[in-house]
């Protein structure tokens, strides 16, 4: 097409085209100035010797136009400054015509240079405006360009519209804005419509994408807008905040797909409080499982607290290498030492030697096996790592006189229906037991809901399934989960270290639980697809109910006993002081764990868990169990993601 062909020309060729066009306008404008002055279409009999101005201004005009960089004005970025640039060229050319007439003593009327300058200005601006409109019309007909609406006709929306006009992939069609004073107006050449018109506009204007260009609105307001757009068959993208835009990329480059945490119906919890930095400043902090989702985020956030040294303890060589390579340049800039140590938390000599050599003062214990189905079929290794590994860390911390030791646990430890959850509850019991014999070390635990973006999380899985064309797999239509972000999870761990009094459990107030199937539907619709109707077959992406996975339940809890709650300095952080087991019972439990692991006796291990872990029960595949032990309607079970630890 003409429009797209012109846009694909090289920059030197485009400049030559504009130089020739503007030079031609100089000659044409000068001729028309004489014609208008004398009032006839053919003024040559009256021009006399002044005709010499035409060849002179052809050459001089080309030099002036090139010197004032008119050919370098981008057509798809034509705005006020460019108009002033054309105006300056018109004034200079008019003055040159006056000067030439005076120097050559020509008899041309004095009004001709003024008329000439005005004609050149109007014709040059008109040429560019018409060219821009023509290219817009031609490229707008390109079926490969996505027709988009911009939600927000403010400064960000106007800049985004300008940026998209230069794009070969997207074609801005209209604005949507809640401001009644803007509705019905033309802004940046696009009509502004009210929000209640969006549904009809999607059909009539063939919109395929809505771009939310309101970077300064609150998360709750953004959530409301996204909820209103979710039923529509359009893809939704969000412009980041102004802080994110400081990266230097263009607005169009900063557009991103809607992230899952924007669908959860609550603002992120602000956990930036001074106590965190004070608690870790100048200390030596050891992070076990440092290469995992939570462990690596803990290390990143610790840098802001200015500890003396961060000890990365990790069993996986690759994960240790990756976090070490990422952290070292940042640590050098922050003035923090980093030490990378390979080892397993189940190795008593290795754990003890690292604590002694590095003079560790605080431990953040994030190392664990966490994936429910894998641990359910590898029970012995799951319990060895999660229970005996925690025992090793806790007892080594007591011997070394560590100041604080924080265990990362999970909501699945509360009345568990799987071995992973049971092993984490046993790990909590171990920490509580060691606390009763410790005078110097303060032990605490943090229970997470499901962590967005962590390894094993269901939400990135949904994104991959949608990108592949489906189906999106959910195991039960009624399953609900609490969600938190990775930064919230890591910050909660650091807060636990700051607020710990010993033996307490910290949880984050995460608002109401979210229905997994509702999140799946919203992610499908906000990606521009439709949920397939199983009856009619109409739609793009199918939601498939896959059935019960071993050890899962419909609902999760964060507390064993609600009456154990105590306040903390932060209103969104809850502290629970839960009762543990006696020292004799814990010792007997750990002795039996050692025996069943050494003998490889899985049935005995499950009997041990059932006897020692309060509320543990194996789930009947035909009768899914809720978090509180009640049975739900006979059906399938949950497709829960597992919190990253």
Structure report:
There is one protein chain. The protein is of the alpha/beta class and about 650 residues long. The chain contains 23 helices and 22 strands. Helix 4 packs antiparallel against helix 5 and helix 13 (about 295-305) crosses helix 20 (about 485-500). The longest helix is centred in the N-terminal third of the chain and has 30 residues, at about 110-140. The two termini are about 55 Å apart.
* Structural Rg: 35 Å
- How is the quaternary structure best described? single chain
Indicate the mean pLDDT: 79
Through-space gap between termini: 55 Å
Count of discrete alpha- or pi-helical segments spanning 4 or more residues: 23
Morphology call: elongated
**What profile does the largest beta sheet have?**
9 strands, mixed
Strand line-up of the largest beta sheet: 10-9-8-11-12-13-18-22-21
Helix and strand composition category: alpha/beta
Report the sheet-strand fraction: 5-15%
Helical content stands at 40-55%
What's the gist of this structure?
With 645 residues, this protein is α/β, with parallel strands linked by helices. Helices cover 47% and strands 14% of the residues.
What tags apply to this protein structure?
47% helix, 645 residues, 9-stranded mixed sheet, alpha/beta
